[in-house]
Structures are given as C-alpha cells and as structure tokens.
C-alpha cells in the first residue's frame, strides 16, 4: 500500500538549488516554518521520480531576513519600536540530510515497496513533507528481529531496531543523569524477550538489582562468586606492583593460595595441582620464621593474610630468592593487599561457570556487586565470568547468544582496567561469531573505554556527552551524519541518538526512550 501522504505528513517547503543525493538545502513555507524542528523526519517528493521518495532528517534550520543582515547597520537598532512585524520579511532555510530512498511502487524501483540507498539528487522545487506519523515507514524496512526502546522524538515513530546485530556489541554514552541505566533496563527487557541470555553487572546494586523481580532475573551476590585463581593472582600482583621474578613469586603464591582455599571449600579436583602440593607441602624453613607468632597457639588463629604470607615464604624458598626479596614482598603484601581480599575467598562458593550456566538456563542473571569493596575484585569477577563463558564456547563450539551488560564501564573496560578490560576487549573483538557480546555504558567514550572495545561497538546510543571530542571519537567508527555538538546540546533527559548497525537506516535517529521504572 502506498504511503498515505495527506494522512501522515504535511507539506512544509521546497528543495532549493544545489541539492545532492545526500544533502538538500530547503526553504520552509512561511506559515509552517515554526512547526519544523531539527531532527524532524521528512520525505522529499521529486515530480520526476514517480512512486519514489527521499527520506531524510532536517538539520541546521536558519532564519533569514533580507534587510536585517549581519554586518550591515540599520536604523532599527536605534529605534526598535519603529520595527513593525509587517515590515519584517523573515524566512527559514534548512538542510535535509537524506538517509534513504523509499520505493513506493514506482518504476525506478521496478514497482517494489522498500527502503534503498538513495542515488538521486532531488530536483529543485521538489516538495518537502514533514512526517507527523512515520509509522508507515516500518513496512518499508528490512528488520529481521525487531525490538524497540522508544519512539522517534517528533514523529513518535516506534523505530524498529534489529536485534540480529546485537552480537556486534552496543555502547550507551551520555552525561550523568541522561538516562543510560534506564535505557539499558529497557534494552534488557527487549533482548531477553528475543531469547538472548544476559549477565548484568550491577556496579552499585541500585541500577538493576531493584528491578530483578519485574524482569524475572536471578540475583547473585558477587561476594559469593569465585575469582579464577589466575585472575586472583594477577590482582595481587597488580596491587603489590612488583615485576620479574618477584612478580612470579607473588603470582605463584596467589594461584596456590586461591586453589587451596577453593579446594578446601568444596571446589573439587579442579583446584588441585601437583605443583602447588609440592610448595604447600614444603616444611617451614628459613624464612618461615617470619610467619610464626611467638607462641604456638597464635598459629591456630592465623589470619588469611598470614596464611598467604606463609605460602609466599615457601614459594620464595622454592625459587631460591634472596632473603631481602622475601622481606620486601611480605611488607608489600601487608601494605597493599587488604586482609578482606584473602579472607573473602573462603566464602566464595559459586564458580563463574555456574553463573554462565545459570544465565544460559534462566536467561537473565544480575550480579549485585554492591557489597564488594575493592574495584580490583569487581574487575576480577567480571573477568572470571567473561572467561568462563569462553571456556564454555571452547568446549561446545556453538553459539551462546549471551551478552554481558557492563554499566559504569569506566571501571571495567578502560585501558588500565586489568583483566576485566582485556576480557571485555576479547569479547568485543572475537565474540561475534559465537554470538557472545557486550553492552557497555559510560559517561565518556575515549577516556573511559579502551580502543579495542570502543572501536568494535556496532551500535551506539548517545545523548549529551560529558567530554568535548567524544562525538568526533564516535564519528571515527560510526556514520554520524551531520549530528554536531550543537545538536547534542539541545537534548533532554531520555533523549538518545541511535546510530550503527541495529538502526535500520544506519544513520543517527533521535529517540525518546520509553518510560522505565515509573516516571512518565
Ligand atoms: N526511560 C526513563 N524512564 C523514566 N525515568 C527516566 C528514564 N530515563 C531517565 N529517567 C529519570 O532520570 C534519572 C536518571 O536516569 P539514569 O539513572 O538512567 O541516568 P544515568 O545516565 O544512568 O546516570 P548516571 O550516569 O549518573 O548513572 C532516573 O532516576 C529517572 O528519574
């Protein structure tokens, strides 16, 4: 059925000279010019192209007046009262950024009804129609698995987003309070409804955990989840900041310590190794005197850190390191690694792979990280779960349809975020063929998100941005058309552009996000 233009659009102007296939200057009708706003969707109807429209977005509306010109003095400056509205002859020009051609049964598209790349420059004089209801456009788009999170800001068109592109990863960026977390909540509901599985990391426990009931999610406290021994080892090494052989010693001791604690707490064979048994079995010799208290009964009340230090002594001895290195390592561990990091291992009874299995079975798991005090540990949890999913993929060699949702991603996906940053980057680079993806949200793009992650985001939602320069950064990976910093400055709360692969037009469209969590 052809687009019912009189019902869904109003004529607002004509195309001026100098149009190309991607941008057209227009002049607005005097009686309608105030009804046309930047970001409005318009159709250009070229009389030479029957049954074909050009779909575009209005940008750069500029008001002119032939007499009141810039840099020309006029008497009304001195006598503004003499300026009556009849003598002023304002008019408005704008540009239409052309996003697509709409084949509406015309001969140029062999009678088809679909959206295509526009290759025609509109003829000057072509009519411009503002879409007041763009809903009919949906039937012209090819969207294999549609989801929606909001409506177009002005035409109220419920833009279908193609969830088939989720595996190319998603970024959500905007200054504080723009509504990133609510947008992600909306996305979560839609994505899970399409059969995908998600693990949501709730950094502070206030953005997602309270909605678990509504979403039908299982909540797991991150303090119950085991950190993979190798990731635990790299956290301890990072905190102590040592290098070379000393780092080896700290890492070996940390690996064996985590494996020992886990195997003593129901971890099973996975955490037993000959190498660690050899070190653990080594009698207290030489440097072990540092760990022993003056009285024998103090030994019984050894703290988790003291146990670790004892193990570290054994490693140092095993590696034939100097006594001074041993003392330095012990001091560094005491000063830089909080006791709770060792202590907490004992109550970590859930394997990261259990969380992955839980998500694959129940669809949605929220990991509540609110009771975790150390950012390094939070990062360790994210990395451990990310790695556990890779192990699953390596074992089964099939698509997982699994996404990790990482809000406050400046803490996890940054350049200096250690294992978490590396694991998220691996997913961003290689996850797509296994349908293993990430959704990251943050206030800033370049400073918060490492290049290997941000350059692999196929779809980006962005609102007012915190840092100047971030828009250009995004424009390096995505077609942002002629959206400028000035366009962003006009955005309010809950207003996000969507650009990239999930957007069927692939060029930025301004969305008003559906209400989530009460507020209208
Ligand atoms: N889609 C929405 N529906 C209803 N309310 C919303 C929506 N988006 C934003 N809000 C309102 O704006 C407030 C801030 O939203 P939100 O917490 O999602 O912002 P944010 O960008 O994640 O902020 P921060 O970066 O500080 O975490 C919410 O508490 C809510 O009142």
From TrEMBL:
Residues 149-385 form the Helicase HerA central domain. It comes from the Archaea. Signal peptide: none annotated. GO terms for molecular function: 3'-5' DNA helicase activity; 5'-3' DNA helicase activity. It catalyses: ATP + H2O = ADP + phosphate + H(+); Couples ATP hydrolysis with the unwinding of duplex DNA by translocating in the 3'-5' direction. InterPro entries: HerA-like, HerA_central, P-loop_NTPase. Pfam families: DUF87. Coiled coil: none annotated. Belongs to the HerA family. This is Helicase HerA central domain-containing protein. It comes from Pyrodictium occultum. The lineage of its organism: Archaea, Thermoproteota, Thermoprotei, Desulfurococcales, Pyrodictiaceae.
């Amino acid at each position: 059925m052809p687009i019912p233009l009189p019902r869904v659009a109003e004529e607002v102007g004509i195309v001026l000279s100098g149009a190309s296939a991607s941008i057209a200057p227009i002049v607005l009708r005097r009686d309608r010019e105030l009804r046309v706003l930047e970001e409005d969707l318009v159709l250009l109807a070229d009389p030479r192209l029957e049954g074909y429209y050009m779909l575009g977005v209005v940008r750069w509306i500029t008001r002119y007046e032939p007499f009141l010109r810039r840099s020309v003095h006029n008497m009304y400056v001195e006598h503004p009262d003499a300026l009556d509205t009849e003598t002023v002859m304002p008019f408005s020009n704008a540009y239409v950024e052309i996003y697509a051609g709409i084949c509406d049964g015309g001969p140029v598209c062999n009678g088809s009804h679909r959206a295509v790349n526009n290759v025609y420059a509109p003829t000057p004089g072509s009519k411009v129609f503002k879409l007041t209801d763009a809903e009919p456009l949906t039937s012209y788009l090819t969207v294999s698995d549609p989801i929606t999170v909001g409506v177009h800001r002005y035409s109220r068109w419920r833009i279908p987003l193609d969830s088939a592109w989720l595996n190319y990863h998603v970024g959500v960026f905007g200054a504080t309070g723009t509504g990133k977390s609510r947008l992600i909540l909306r996305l979560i509901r839609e994505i899970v409804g399409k059969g995908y599985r998600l693990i949501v990391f709730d950094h502070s426990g206030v953005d997602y955990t309270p909605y678990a009931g509504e979403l039908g999610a299982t909540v797991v406290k991150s303090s119950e989840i085991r950190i993979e021994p190798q990731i635990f080892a790299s956290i301890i090494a990072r905190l102590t900041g040592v290098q070379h052989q000393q780092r080896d010693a700290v890492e070996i001791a940390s690996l064996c310590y985590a494996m020992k604690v886990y195997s003593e707490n129901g971890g099973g064979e996975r955490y037993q190794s000959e190498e660690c048994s050899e070190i653990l079995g080594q009698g207290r010799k030489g440097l072990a005197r540092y760990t022993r208290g003056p009285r024998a009964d103090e030994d019984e009340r050894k703290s988790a850190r003291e146990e670790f230090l004892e193990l570290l002594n054994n490693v140092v001895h095993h590696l034939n390191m100097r006594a001074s290195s041993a003392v330095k390592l012990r001091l560094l561990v005491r000063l830089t690694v909080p006791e709770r990091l060792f202590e907490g291992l004992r109550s970590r009874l859930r394997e990261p792979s259990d969380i992955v299995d839980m998500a694959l079975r129940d669809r949605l798991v929220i990991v509540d990280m609110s009771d975790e005090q150390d950012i390094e540990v939070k990062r360790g949890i994210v990395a451990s779960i990310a790695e556990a999913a890779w192990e699953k993929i390596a074992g089964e060699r099939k698509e997982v349809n699994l996404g990790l949702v990482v809000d406050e991603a400046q803490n996890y996906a940054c350049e200096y975020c250690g294992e978490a940053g590396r694991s998220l980057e691996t997913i961003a680079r290689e996850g797509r063929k296994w349908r293993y993806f990430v959704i990251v949200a943050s206030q800033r793009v370049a400073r918060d998100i490492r290049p290997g992650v941000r350059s692999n985001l196929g779809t980006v939602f962005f609102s007012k941005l915190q840092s100047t320069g971030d828009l250009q950064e995004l424009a390096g990976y995505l077609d942002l058309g002629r959206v400028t910093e000035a366009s962003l400055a006009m955005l309010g709360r809950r207003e996000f552009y969507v650009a990239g692969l999930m957007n069927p037009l692939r060029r930025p469209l301004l969305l008003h996000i559906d209400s989530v969590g009460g507020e209208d």
